[in-house]
Task: inverse folding
């Protein structure tokens, strides 16, 4: 299977936040930002694989600053790591007050997507060709997160199979 670069599938999406996106205080709901994050990451996954891809997990969604009605939200998403059938995609969310020009880092998240075949079963994904030192670093960090996620899944499975082995 061919290698693809991070640049080939990366995406930047922007959207102005409107009243229907916010609560009565004029702050955008976290769920609206979460949906935008999932959409941006999904585009990256589909561009990388040219397949239908589904969200398997969201890892470390951290909100740093609020978003107000009228702000421009920009999502920058890129693939960090690929496995056999899955990919980790990082998304950085930035907010711009379009009247003042002030930028702020709103949120960051890591998502895992799985590529599906015509039978809706997981299929192999193209490898990742890292071109820069930054891409290589992100790949190493993503590999560590993946190992941690898999260890946690194994532990959860043991707990589900043997409730007596679980700790509160």
Result:
């Amino acid at each position: 299977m061919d290698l693809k670069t991070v640049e080939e599938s990366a995406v930047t999406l922007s959207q102005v936040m409107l009243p229907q996106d916010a609560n009565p205080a004029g702050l955008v709901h976290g769920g609206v930002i979460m949906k935008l994050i999932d959409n941006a990451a999904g585009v990256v996954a589909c561009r990388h694989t040219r397949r239908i891809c589904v969200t398997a997990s969201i890892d470390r969604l951290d909100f740093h600053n609020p978003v107000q009605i009228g702000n421009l939200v920009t999502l920058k998403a890129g693939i960090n790591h690929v496995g056999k059938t899955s990919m980790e995609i990082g998304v950085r969310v930035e907010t711009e007050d379009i009247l003042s020009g002030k930028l702020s880092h709103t949120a960051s998240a890591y998502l895992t997507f799985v590529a599906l075949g015509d039978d809706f079963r997981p299929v192999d994904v193209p490898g990742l060709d890292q071109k820069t030192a930054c891409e290589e670093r992100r790949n190493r960090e993503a590999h560590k997160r993946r190992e941690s996620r898999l260890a946690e899944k194994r532990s959860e499975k043991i707990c589900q199979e043997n409730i007596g082995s679980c700790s509160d």
User: Anything to note?
Assistant: The chain has three helices and seven strands. Strands lie at 3-5, 11-16, 52-63, 72-82, 86-96, 103-116, 127-129. The mean pLDDT is 93. The CA atoms of residues 33 and 89 lie 16 Å apart.
